[in-house]
Specification:
The complex is a heterodimer of chains A (208) and B (299). Chain A has 208 residues and is an all-alpha fold. Chain A contains 12 helices and no strands. In chain A, α8 runs antiparallel to α9. Classes of the chains: A mainly alpha (208), B alpha/beta (299).
């Protein structure tokens, strides 16, 4: 377990709700949940969440810190925003789920082999390198994220799609050699670095 | 009508030889007919969509869209920012809302932007291309340019998630928005009535990381279009388009279905109806060919 995680456990002993309110994006909304369950019932991936959003909100209040932060539930969010527009209390549920997932990652306790966690990290690395997403490199990184063997298997499985995209000029092998990018990628990286520093100064567990 | 100018945010998938480059082709053709000038935001960057959250915290993610808005204010002052991609539109709009709702976030964002000599106010309106069509033109005006009505083509309007929620199009409901159906009708085609997967999720970015779970959703979206008698599906979102089109072979293998449903953009339909040829309408970008549109375009 990471130092920062231990530090947060010490700091917020027995008050996970307050920890979420002070450290998680949009976390101050959690206490507003009235447990109606519309979010859980509206989620397209609903059956795949170990703890659907309604349950997560109650677990936060019940202090189930490890069960929430180590869960792969939040990583099931497809960002469809159904829960947000249907919530009678207007909680920004999608953003709270993203916020919890991100917080768990910062503490180093998110489930390591969760595929969406891995993909989301790859996506961020990919875009922050040049300022724009390189779809080919992102796709290949995704296929090979669980090693060479599985990567080759996935690539073979996906080859009809890759070929189809190539034939319709919606994919170019040239993207492997540099590809699209921001001219001022350096400036963009400086902005991101500064933003991360500012956030780290404000939120105790940030910047990890 | 006189020329209309907008500050344009095309987004990563619209670039040359990227997954929605065919969308861009058809948008350009549509805009030519409607006399719309798109002034690209110089050196724009990725918005991090809805999947950047593992790597990037709130402020870095806001800073991404803020950079685009800052450059837009400099280069295209006084113009509305227009995005064709649902995720680009949503991320930019969300950033604007957060920055205006929290002066501390606004101050910190500007502190970060200053690293590259930029400053954001965030006062330009952020709009989806569909809003431009409906609000600045209107169905009647859009219909005036139709040269080849899409007679006899039955189309399921798949609105999906992010062009619909949480912001959506003014005056439309979240559960049953009608604008795509109206656009389909305006182009002379027939919308599928009561398409019950109209606003369902295709899995979004999780189609990559959770393919099986997402393909189960996609299967229902296509099946429901067939049930309604659709010849093709139309969508306003690059992720919806790709997810619903390209996995059909995999879905057929897994579920023993026989899907071969073309999935096009509203701008594809409009370009064909406006008399553009197949290439100009981006029809060569279809992995599942939209044969009826090809026939109309080649007439």
């Amino acid at each position: 377990m990471s130092d920062v995680n231990t530090q947060m456990v010490e700091q917020y002993r027995n008050n996970f709700l307050r920890e979420v309110e002070e450290n998680v994006e949009e976390g101050e909304w959690v206490k507003m949940c009235m447990q109606c369950g519309v979010c859980s019932g509206s989620c397209p991936f609903g059956p795949h969440w170990e703890h659907p959003p309604q349950e997560i909100f109650m677990m936060i209040r019940a202090g189930k810190r490890d069960e929430v932060l180590q869960s792969d539930s939040m990583w099931m969010c497809t960002s469809c925003y159904n829960c947000i527009v249907r919530c009678p209390r207007e909680l920004p549920i999608t953003h709270i789920m993203h916020g919890l997932a991100h917080y768990a990652k910062r503490l180093g306790i998110a489930p390591k082999n969760q595929p969406t966690y891995k993909f989301a990290e790859l996506f961020w690395k990919n875009l922050s390198k040049t300022g724009r997403v390189n779809e080919l490199k992102l796709g290949l990184a995704l296929y090979f994220m669980n090693g060479i063997g599985e990567g080759i298997k996935t690539s073979l499985k996906m080859k009809d799609i890759g070929l189809g995209m190539l034939m319709t000029k919606r994919l170019s092998p040239m993207e492997l050699l540099g590809g699209h990018k921001c001219k001022d990628a350096k400036g963009l990286q400086a902005i991101l670095k500064k933003a991360a520093e500012l956030e780290a100064a404000r939120i105790p567990a940030a910047g990890k | 009508m006189s020329k209309k100018s907008y500050s344009f945010y095309p987004g990563c998938s619209s670039q040359k030889a990227a997954s929605a480059s065919n969308y861009m082709t058809s948008v350009n053709s549509m805009c030519e007919t409607l006399d719309i000038q798109l002034n690209e935001i110089p050196d724009w960057n990725c918005c991090s969509a809805s999947i950047g959250y593992a790597g990037g915290g709130e402020l870095p993610r806001l800073a991404l869209s803020a950079r685009n808005m800052a450059i837009s204010e400099q280069a295209n002052p006084g113009q509305d920012i227009v995005a064709t991609c649902a995720a680009c539109w949503l991320a930019t709009k969300e950033t604007q809302e957060r920055l205006h709702g929290d002066s501390k976030l606004m101050a910190e964002t500007n502190e970060a932007l200053a690293q590259a000599g930029l400053k954001v106010k965030g006062d330009q309106k952020v709009r989806h291309m569909v809003e431009v069509l409906i609000e600045d033109f209107g169905y009647e005006e859009l219909g005036k340019h139709v040269k080849k009505p899409l007679d006899g083509v039955k189309i399921a309007g798949y609105v999906g998630c992010q062009t619909n929620r949480p912001f959506g199009i003014d005056g439309e409901s979240y559960e049953n928005p009608k604008y795509l159906d109206k656009l389909v009708e305006t182009m002379g085609a027939t919308p599928v009535e009561n398409y019950d997967k109209k606003v369902s999720c295709c899995g979004g970015a999780l189609a990559f990381s959770e393919p099986e779970k997402s393909q189960a959703l996609i299967k229902d979206i296509i099946e429901s279009a067939y049930d309604g008698g659709a010849d093709m599906i139309v969508t306003p979102c690059p992720v919806c388009q790709m997810n619903v089109e390209v996995y059909q072979n995999h879905i057929n293998q897994k579920y023993k279905t026989n899907f071969k449903m073309p999935v096009v953009y509203y701008s594809t339909l409009m370009s064909v109806a406006y008399g553009k040829n197949g290439k100009e309408a981006g029809l060569d970008g279809q992995m599942i060919k939209a044969k009826q549109l090809e026939e109309i375009a080649s007439k």
